[in-house]
Design brief:
The protein is an alpha+beta fold. The chain has helices spanning 13-37, 39-42, 193-204, 214-223, 230-233, 236-250, 257-265, 296-312, and strands spanning 57-59, 72-79, 88-95, 102-104, 131-133, 140-141, 144-145, 147-155, 166-173, 184-189, 274-280, 284-291, 334-341, 344-345, 355-363, 381-389.
Length: 411
Amino acid sequence: MLGGPGWLNAPKQGDVTEKKEKKVNFIENRKKREDQKNPSKKDNYKRKFPHPKGTDVLSYPLGMTPDEENGGRLQIKCFEYVAPGAGTFGGDVSFLRASENMSVGNGIDTPTLELSDSFTSAPKGSQIDTGNYKKNEVLTVKGQAVYQLNNSEIKNLGSSDKIEQMHYVVELPIPQDVNDSNTVTWGDDSKNILQLAGLAAGTAFVDSDGKLNLNDLRTKLQTTALQGLDEISNNKNAILAAATGKALDAFGAQVSPNAAVSRSTGQILNSNLELLFDSVNLRSFPFSIIFSPRNAKESMRVKHIIRAFKSSMAAKKKTSNSGQGGAFLKAPDVFKLRYLHNGKDHPFLNSFKPCALTGMTVNYTNAGTFASYSDGTPVSIQMNLTFKELNPIYQEDYDIFEPNDSQGVGF
């Protein structure tokens, strides 16, 4: 008998193959489920560019190249965005350390110890915290390390100071509507004589630690803060009416100090209205570009330019997996713009700081109705771009004047 009585139970070759395939499929399905739970483990994300990139210029029309002296052009360079950061402090930090093993306390053997010099973290005369300090251990005052910050400065770099990695360059004809608008915000501010006196008195009673001494301030206001003002002394009824109106207004009586003074004496408190600087603003630049491709190569170039701007202004999921991405999204790309004249910086038109592309619209029926060539390219396309600068304009951004300069009008 071949193989003994058990040979009839031996699996066939086809059964063995089928079981192996099922096992392989089970392992692959389990790996897929693990990858879905932890996409970061298997996802080797690498950014894809749906358009030409590098130093080759996407120029339109094709008849104009960067090397030709072609008059005015608008150059747009695309860069990877770099976050500005929270700002850092520059300088050297030196800590006050124990020169040997020492004890600080209130007893005879361990007397209290005061700082003989003023430090950044503690003023002169501050008492060192009680306790045992080992050699080279940092001494503390009120739980804080005693240190001196030397040559300190705040390094508050903006995004525009960190942009380096370039993706591509686009050159277009200068649009028909070229302008710039610089604005800053100023606001009305008013303070009557009582408010100004309070501010002046408060400033005078800030102690060495930078804290307001409320007891001295209260005494000063009650006794001598307003005694030297003859106008105030001669109008005690007006002052009393103003204080009463303010007190009643706090209880919802809707009686303003000026209304109370006006009813009492026929006059109002001088508001000392003044226009004060409030904030800086960011500039926006809208551009409208008309494309009229004349051949297949120019049609491809227009398509690449539109696709490049669309993809660069989109946020990044930082994962090649489908769906909404992870917990965070990466910022879109940013751009550096400049006007060119004969291939160099324009000698008259304005300059730009790095910008974000905040809006983009494309009208494929710029001719009034949809019309296209045989390959489907619209005969006339209008692309509207809106850029906004990443950082405000400051006076220090302007270069020093030089006779016969070619710096243009500046920002």
